[in-house]
Design brief:
The chain is α/β, with parallel strands linked by helices. Helix content is 41%, strand content 16%. The chain has 14 helices and 15 strands. The strands form three sheets. A seven-stranded parallel sheet has the order 5-3-1-6-7-8-9, with helices on both faces. The chain has a six-stranded parallel sheet with strand order 12-11-10-13-14-15, with helices on both faces. A two-stranded parallel ribbon has the order 2-4.
């Protein structure tokens, strides 16, 4: 059987690329150690991977918890393990230059954070250079969306014949549609009333990429209308969290916006909400969006997000064309509120479609593609 070497920062089922990495590693290891040997080079892995008899873990330290300081160490160990490796090697983006397969979840050449400071600019230049070298030398580049594939082609210069698109999978059990009983239980756990709609934002608050600044502006507009009765819940953390908490107090929106910080029970928070809003300036795919839709929530998202290409025609009204326009975002939220029951019904078929593709399906596609 073929051995595998996987190189990425984190293999944990907590969201985004980390969840996808974890799913692939568990599949290749056979779940309970029944598959081929899987070598994992990472800063952090979930206990189930550590316990697997089929996994050989090569842990790399992350000094001071810094991604930037840990990146060269991860690259060095990944490239050391890849030398002479008799099997398939899959590295996330520019994490390692191994010349085999690169799995791209985010294209640094497609987005540079505004106001990142000196440290942020240094980090961006480092990741940009690593990304360019690794992707251009890769035998195969796997992308999580067509949008990502286009960025890899147009911004990094990788020929189309070396690029493939593999959509993420889902957990149809953890992210099943929410029924009335689960919704009541989720709201009770969060101490939220049952009779007020709640709009959810999920995203890091460390820069402007996820678009919370525009969601905040839209929310101020909506709350300026006396009949507006929905509240906003914010899941995420980052260096700007205190800034936004202060802005909420200054604008006297304390009772209308709740900051929940980091959550490891996102599926329960989603169950307590009625709509997701996510007008990101750059979103290679958007797993949090997919998970909300899988649970039955309509999701208002940027038309440029990778997952937007999977939206069916009858849900295109949920796509924000100009993420800098807070009024457009507010209008789309407003229209949802006054058609709330119809909006939930219209998203059901899309929810079923996304849920039907599991993490195993994704992993099987990757295994076949890489082995071809």
């Amino acid at each position: 059987m073929t051995s595998w070497l996987l190189i990425a920062g984190d293999f944990v089922p907590l969201g985004g690329m980390d969840r996808a990495n974890h799913a692939l590693a568990m599949h290749l290891a056979g779940g309970e150690g029944e598959g081929p040997v899987v070598h994992v080079v990472a800063h952090r892995v979930w206990p189930d991977l550590e316990r697997s008899a089929a996994v050989r873990l090569h842990r790399v330290r992350r000094p001071l918890g810094s991604h930037l300081l840990g990146a060269p160490l991860l690259a060095a160990e990944g490239e050391r393990q890849a030398r002479g490796f008799a099997g398939r090697v899959v590295a996330n983006g520019g994490n390692a230059d191994v010349g085999d397969v690169t799995w791209v979840h985010f294209v640094h050449a497609a987005y540079a954070a505004d106001g990142a400071g000196v440290r942020g600019r240094v980090a961006h230049q480092y990741y940009l250079a690593r990304e360019r070298r690794a992707l251009r030398r890769a035998r195969l580049v796997m992308c999580n969306s067509r949008r990502t594939a286009e960025d890899v082609r147009d911004r990094v210069g990788v020929p189309s014949d070396r690029i493939r698109v593999v959509y993420y999978g889902s957990d149809p059990v953890a992210f099943a549609p929410v029924d009335a009983e689960e919704r009541r239980a989720a709201r009770a756990a969060l101490r939220w009333p049952l009779d007020r709609p709640v709009v959810l934002f999920i995203g890091a608050l460390g820069d402007r990429r996820k678009g919370f600044d525009r969601v905040f502006d839209a929310w101020r507009q909506l709350c300026g209308d006396p009949p507006w009765d929905a509240d906003l819940a914010v899941v995420g953390q980052g260096r700007d969290l205190r800034h936004w908490q202060r802005r909420v107090r200054e604008c006297r929106l304390d009772s209308r916006i709740r900051f929940l910080g980091f959550r490891d029970d996102v599926e329960r928070v989603i169950a307590a909400c009625d709509l997701l809003v996510h007008p990101a300036r750059y979103e290679a795919y958007g797993l949090a969006i997919q998970e909300a839709v899988c649970r039955g929530l309509p999701a208002i998202v940027a038309a440029s997000a990778g997952i937007a290409e999977r939206y069916p025609p009858d849900l295109r009204h949920l796509l924000v064309q100009d993420v800098e326009d807070a009024t457009e975002i507010a209008d789309r939220i407003h229209r949802w509120r006054w058609n709330i029951d119809a909006a939930a019904a219209r998203v059901r078929a899309f929810s079923d479609c996304l849920r039907s593709r599991t993490w195993r399906d994704m992993s099987v596609d990757i295994q076949r593609m890489v082995s071809a």
